[in-house]
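User: These chains co-purify. Model them together.
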Amino acid sequence: MTNLRLIVSGYGRVGRALVRLLLEKGEAVARRHGLELPLAAVVDVDGAAVASGAAGLPLGQIAAGLPPGKGPSTLETWGEPSVTTSVLVERGLADVLVETTPTDLQTGEPGLGHLRAALSHGLHVVTATKGPLVLRFGELNRLAERNGVALKYSAATAAALPALDLGVYCLAGAEIERIEGVLNGTTNFILTRMRRLEETYQEALAEAQRLGIAEADPRLDVGGWDTASKLVLIANGLLGVALTLDQVQVSGIEGVTLDQIRGAAAAGVVPRLLAVAVRDGGAVRASVGVEHLAPDHPLAAVDGAEKGITYFTDTMDRVTVAGGKSDPRGAAAALLKDLINLARERGVKG
Amino acid sequence: MTNLRLIVSGYGRVGRALVRLLLEKGEAVARRHGLELPLAAVVDVDGAAVASGAAGLPLGQIAAGLPPGKGPSTLETWGEPSVTTSVLVERGLADVLVETTPTDLQTGEPGLGHLRAALSHGLHVVTATKGPLVLRFGELNRLAERNGVALKYSAATAAALPALDLGVYCLAGAEIERIEGVLNGTTNFILTRMRRLEETYQEALAEAQRLGIAEADPRLDVGGWDTASKLVLIANGLLGVALTLDQVQVSGIEGVTLDQIRGAAAAGVVPRLLAVAVRDGGAVRASVGVEHLAPDHPLAAVDGAEKGITYFTDTMDRVTVAGGKSDPRGAAAALLKDLINLARERGVKG
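Assistant: Joint model of the two components:
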């Protein structure tokens, strides 16, 4: 039985979904994968809950005792106010840091500090947080290599759409020559409504906000930055480069008019906010913008809030993956998947 | 540097494509994955070529010196006439048997004997041959477990379409509740032509044969048996069962009339030869037959000779993968991928 002791950093929607998933799936993961994942600590802005023994925190009591708004440090038996993720990783109580704090594309914090601390102290990292990787991929990757630990981030690339894993595992040994992706469900939902229902951009955006698909401040999505962030992570993970967000040419969907959409429909093509990374000599060119796809392009069928990605390879031809849950439970499922694959590759630790 | 010494069993189109791929990709695989794959022996019906040293056979000379029709035992320096795969695996000269002999769905031979011999002698197996797994999955799986070796067969499930790997790696930790697949390019090509061009079954089949997509004797494909074989392998690998081919309810496309296809088109649905595996209590029900898909079903867009598979899961929602080269080079690429993933999971041997 492999044993990976976890620190879950961030106890928002994804952190909570992960604790519930560990509770729900723990027995099946142990039986099928020979893997136990005790929760050594769970940390939020106000402090942490820290386990007293090797069995970890009692997941049922954590999940039940911490409704939204109540942080882990408030728990009587395990609560430790004020302690931070960076302090906890130094205590030697865990093997993996699972990072679920909110993404900040300007500073990468607080995740960046957490990842640096964890990797420096020999902890593997599994992260759903994009910021640190979008800004400091090269540094973090070297830090992981130097300390002989893994840095896994499939949950940060597109939640349960296995964009990164498809490249890592399913296309191993093939050269990926070009990547095209529809990586943001909100913008795809808006463009699909404009095309199908002839709504204006503002109408479709309002409907997406009403349904909870778009955020009140939708700029990260509609400006193309969420898409660009995912593209950076995927390209860096698969093409052997260390792109940063400022190296991507980004345009969004805010300027798309209903006339343009009607014109595309008349021409029989499908508008998508497309992320593209393509090899160009030793470098990689990356861009995000609206492209008109031929109807037989595999991403032309990826409609509504769904996402998809196509890899063009030398030996395996074109491979497309689409779907995957986008909500916190989907992101938590991607974190669990990374933990299982980490254990497969690194073998017994405990 | 990990070192996995290979015996390639079968030197037909797939075996030849693999030797060429090892030649072409050897340096990149060593650099990126820290993996060397020396060819200890290559075996065909008439005997083998066997390397004299740890560096393995010279791939360039093997590829150049053996045009189609000329077997490895004819090579002057390395040829060893009459020796068989089963004898070679006992010599301790290799870590992995790569099986590429033709599939026989009645007897599973000659692959079945080769796999039994290899697993019993502690060799990992990577196979593109379906027969042994379709008929004796349970036995071979137990044999692999008992001997602490891996049995990998993604190349047997649909060549470069990563049907199996998607489930193994990308959906790890999720419950797969239902699998639906378009797993045979020939039948999908025929049905697509009937729908798009209003050809009869016989006309579309003749065109597929003319293009080399269908074989002269197309029964394995059009009868649904190739699809059913792949479904058995995928379900066994992912759903924890040990189905055999006779447990699948199979019907093919021979009886499909142009009238039926026109009726489906009028109703706005898309006919596909669909493989379905679904959990039913502790068991799994598996079937192959023509189904009419709604136009927004993800496999409705998988047209022509392309293949695709959709997994319905508990935590990750619906995930579909489509595409992937079907020819011998695609199958060889899938074998190479299995070797890389094997090395990742098993670590250093040499």
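Chain A has 13 helices and 15 strands.
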